[in-house]
Automatic annotation (TrEMBL):
Top-level taxon of the source organism: Bacteria
Transmembrane in keyword set: yes
Name of this protein: Hydrophobe/amphiphile efflux-1 (HAE1) family RND transporter
UniProt GO molecular function: xenobiotic transmembrane transporter activity
One protein family per Pfam: ACR_tran
Membrane-spanning ranges: 12-29, 335-354
InterPro entries tied to this protein: AcrB_DN_DC_subdom (IPR027463), Acrflvin-R (IPR001036)
Keyword terms: Membrane, Transmembrane, Transmembrane helix
Gene3D superfamilies for this protein: Multidrug efflux transporter AcrB pore domain, Multidrug efflux transporter AcrB pore domain like, Multidrug efflux transporter AcrB TolC docking domain, DN and DC subdomains, Multidrug efflux transporter AcrB transmembrane domain
Length: 380
C-alpha cells in the first residue's frame, strides 16, 4: 500500500499519526531555546600569557617565540598567529573544522608545560598561560550602566559583592564582569633615598612582604572523638600591620617598612574609564550558560536587578545599556506575524482560484505544521 493510498483508506490512523506529531511538536516548542544566533564554536584556541612590566620586544623573545615553537607541533593545527604587546602575549591556533577542541586543549596544555619546563628562556615572572575558546554562547546578553556620586570610590566592591554575587547564583547565569570604577589596593610608596641609606633594596621589601603575608596550617589537635584543625593566620588585615614588617638591621637598629616607605590603603591604577551619560560609573555585563534560554535568563536578571537596586545607596543608579533579549523577542514577533500573513494570503489565493474552502484550509495548515515538525525532526 502506497503512502497516498494509506492516507485515503486509513483516515483515522492518518489523523492519529498527525495528531501525535502535532502534540510532540508543541511540547518541543515549549522546550526550545531562544537565542539571537545558533551556538557556534569556531576551531580556534587562544593562548594568553601575561608577563607584567615587560615591553613588547621582551614578550616576543622570552614568551611568544618559545611557546610558538612548542605549540606549532600540535596535531590538527592549520594556522598559528601571535601578537606580542606590553605585558602580554596572545597566540591564536586555528584548527581544521571537525577537530575535537577538548583534545586539542589537552595537547596545548601539555606543550605549554614542556615549554616552561625545558626552555630556559621562559621567565619565572610570567603568569601561568590560560586558554580561551570563543563560543557564540559566551556573548554577553545584558549590559548595565551603574553610576554613583558619593558612593563612587566604593562602587566597584559594592556592586561586585552585593549585585554580582547575587546574579551569579541565578539559574542560567554564567559570569558577571565589571569594567571601570576604582578597585581597592594597598600601595607601598617607597622612599628610595631612605631605602638606599639603610642599605636595602626593593627586592628586600618584596621578600619581606612575601614571607610575612602567609597563612599556614600547623597540624591538628585530637581531643577525644573531636579532631581540631589548626592554622596560623599571618595575612595582613590592615595597613598598620604592613608598616610593622621588619626588613632587617642597619647599624644595629631594627628597620621597619614604615622607616623607608609609606603604606596607603588606596586604589589600583586606573586603566579604563567608564562614563554613563557623562557621569563616572561602571559597566556590568552578564553572560549566560551554554544551552540556556537567553530571553528567560535576561528576564531573571532584570527582575533581580530591580530587587537589588532597592537595597543599594540612594545615589547608586542602574540602567540597561543593551539587552539582546529585546532583539530576540522582536525577531520572534516578526516571524510570527509573517507566518500569519502567509496563512491568510494562502487561504485567499487558493480560495480565489478554486472557490473551495477545504483545499484552502488544508494548504494553510501545512505552513505551521511544517514549521512545527521541522523543530521536532530538524534533520529530515
Amino acid at each position: 500500500m502506497s503512502l497516498p493510498e494509506f492516507g485515503v483508506r486509513k483516515p483515522v490512523s492518518n489523523l492519529m499519526i498527525f495528531s501525535a506529531i502535532i502534540i510532540l511538536a508543541f511540547y518541543s516548542l515549549t522546550r526550545i531555546g531562544i537565542d539571537i544566533m545558533p551556538e557556534i564554536e569556531p576551531p580556534i584556541i587562544s593562548v594568553i600569557a601575561a608577563y607584567p612590566g615587560a615591553n613588547p620586544q621582551d614578550v616576543e623573545i622570552k614568551v611568544t617565540e618559545p611557546l610558538e615553537n612548542q605549540l606549532a607541533t600540535t596535531p590538527g593545527l592549520e594556522k598559528i598567529t601571535s601578537r606580542s604587546m606590553e605585558g602580554a602575549s596572545v597566540i591564536s591556533l586555528k584548527f581544521k573544522w571537525g577537530t575535537n577542541l577538548d583534545e586539542a586543549s589537552n595537547d596545548i596544555r601539555d606543550r605549554i608545560e614542556q615549554a616552561k619546563r625545558y626552555l630556559p628562556d621562559i621567565p619565572d615572572e610570567m603568569d601561568n598561560p590560560f586558554l580561551y575558546k570563543f563560543n557564540t554562547a559566551n556573548i554577553p546578553i545584558v549590559f548595565f550602566g551603574i553610576t554613583a556620586n558619593q558612593t563612587y570610590p566604593e562602587l566597584y566592591d559594592l556592586i561586585d559583592n552585593s549585585v554580582g554575587d547575587a546574579l551569579r547564583q541565578l539559574p542560567g547565569v554564567g559570569t558577571v564582569n565589571l569594567f571601570g570604577g576604582l578597585q581597592r589596593q594597598v600601595n607601598v610608596w617607597i622612599d628610595r633615598e631612605r631605602l638606599e641609606g639603610y642599605g636595602f633594596s626593593i627586592l628586600d621589601i618584596t621578600n619581606a612582604l612575601d614571607k610575612e603575608n602567609i597563612t599556614q596550617p600547623v597540624g591538628n589537635i585530637k581531643m577525644g572523638l573531636t579532631d581540631y584543625l589548626l592554622r596560623l593566620p599571618g595575612e595582613f588585615a590592615t595597613p598598620d600591620e604592613i608598616n610593622s614588617v621588619i626588613l632587617g638591621k642597619s647599624g644595629g637598629k631594627i628597620v621597619f617598612l614604615k622607616d623607608v616607605a609609606r603604606v596607603e590603603d588606596g586604589f589600583k591604577e586606573v586603566t579604563m574609564i567608564v562614563r554613563i551619560n557623562r557621569n563616572p560609573g561602571l559597566l556590568m555585563q552578564v553572560q549566560k550558560q551554554t544551552g540556556t534560554n537567553t530571553v528567560e535568563v535576561a528576564e531573571r536578571v532584570k527582575k533581580k536587578i530591580a530587587e537589588l537596586e532597592k537595597t543599594l545607596p540612594s545615589d547608586v543608579h542602574m540602567q540597561i545599556i543593551f539587552d539582546t533579549s529585546e532583539d530576540i523577542i522582536n525577531s520572534v514577533n516578526s516571524l510570527t506575524s509573517s507566518v500569519w500573513v502567509a496563512i491568510v494570503l494562502v487561504i485567499f489565493v487558493v480560495w480565489f482560484f478554486l472557490r473551495q474552502s477545504a483545499p484552502s484550509m488544508i494548504i494553510a495548515l501545512t505552513i505551521p505544521f511544517s514549521l512545527l515538525t521541522q523543530r521536532e525532526f530538524p534533520a529530515c
